[in-house]
Amino acid sequence: MKKINIGIIGLGRVSQIAYLAQLTKNKRINSISICDTNLELLNKISKKYNISKFYSKYQVMLEKEDLDLIFLIVNRFFAENLAEKILEHKKNFILFSEKPFALSLQKANKLVKLAQKKNKTFFVGYMKRCDNGIRLLKNKINKLNLGRISFVDYNSFDGDSFDKKDKYIKYKFKKISKKKNTSELKFLNTQCHSINLLEYLFGKLSLDHSYVNLAGEGITIFKNNKNIKFVLKNRFNKKTEWYEKIKIFFEKGFIEVDISAPFFRNKATLISYRKYSNRNSTRINLFKKKWCFENQVKNVINYTTIKKNNSKLKLYPELCQAKSCLNEFKLIKKIFA
Q1: Which residues pair with 13 in a beta bridge?
Q2: Burial, 278: exposed, middle or buried (Cβ in 10 Å; 0-12, 13-18, 19+)?
Q3: Is the pLDDT of residue 104 over 90?
Q4: pLDDT tens, 43-90?
């Protein structure tokens, strides 16, 4: 089986902690090319991971290297324009971009149409879908004899998502973008994850009511085609501990999902359920406790390898294609209209 060649654009904290360490150990990868405009960081990363192919300009990397897969792991204010240039390139490869891949519905639509026009697979990094706890929830949600779903309560309170034990090469970040980080963009950055996860579990959502203040915090109510209501409560505060919990209420009981902070690789999502006829909750145990980022990277690499070898493509429902994210942008645009 032929191995794949990958490129990584952006070598910041997320790239180092969640991607580089795993990609450099993956046996299905033939070569890795890296790119960053920060020359000091670029040199340090190349030496740390013994990567001989490194570039300060992504255009040069795209021309010189025969890449099968590109990881775009950059600040969200730069992602959409870079994604557009990469998708426009004549070479055929798969693009994987961290979320959000655009800052507006208009730009998101443009990128999706461009990917389709150029016949390129375009994945977006929603790693919570690859969490083993979420996978288990999706499999078990209708098998616990709890009756029909009444409504869903989702608390998404932003906090410190990084594990201080993780070591990475620090750098000075130069923000060149002129775009202001508005409350809508802050909401998009954090709550596109929440909306995407709800749609992954329960299907397409529509906006019912929104009570979001000028800071972008508050309560948003969605509903799906089964008329189930979803109450999303959000708050921004990087100085507090991460708090993300979903509670699914049924006719005969409820399920509680305690989602761990994304960059804590040793913390698992906890799932428990209780029937109203019982006093005690029952914990659903995970057979394998694997990091969501690890699962996501493995899935993308496997998909790319299969595609390169012209084998029958295996479906990875946890992987999110850009075209399936458009409804998130539509909903958020309505919330802030």
Answers
A1: none
A2: exposed
A3: yes
A4: 999 999 999 999 999 999 999 999 999 999 999 999 999 999 999 999
d(CA 261, CA 259): 7
In whole angstroms, give the CA distance from residue 29 to residue 88.
24
Enumerate the H helices of 32-182 as residue ranges. Answer: 39-48, 58-64, 76-88, 105-117, 132-140
The token duo for 56 is: 């300060």
Structure tokens at 286: 């995970």
The tokens for 146 are 């709890």
Mean pLDDT of 86-97: 97
Q: Which two tokens stand for residue 129?
A: 């879908």
Residues contacting residue 7 through CB under 8 Å, at least 6 positions apart = 32, 33, 34, 35, 58, 61, 62, 65, 67, 69, 70, 71
- Count of CB atoms situated within 10 Å of the CB of 304: 23
Domains, the chain = 4-127+292-327 (3.40.50.720), 135-288+329-335 (3.30.360.10)
What is the spatial distance between Cα 87 and Cα 118, in angstroms, rounded to a whole number? 7
Task: Assess whether pLDDT exceeds 90 at residue 286.
Answer: no
Residue count of the chain, please give it. 337
CA distance 86 to 33: 15
pLDDT tops 70 at residue 176: no
Chain-centre distance for alpha carbon 155: 18
Do residues 116 and 310 lie in contact, with contact meaning Cβ atoms separated by under 8 Å? no
Instruction: State residue 125 phi and psi, 5-degree precision.
Output: -80, 85
* Neighbouring residues of 146: CB distance < 8 A, sequence distance ≥ 6: 250, 251, 252, 253, 254, 255, 273, 275
Q: Please check the confidence at residue 269 and state whether its pLDDT lies above 80.
A: yes
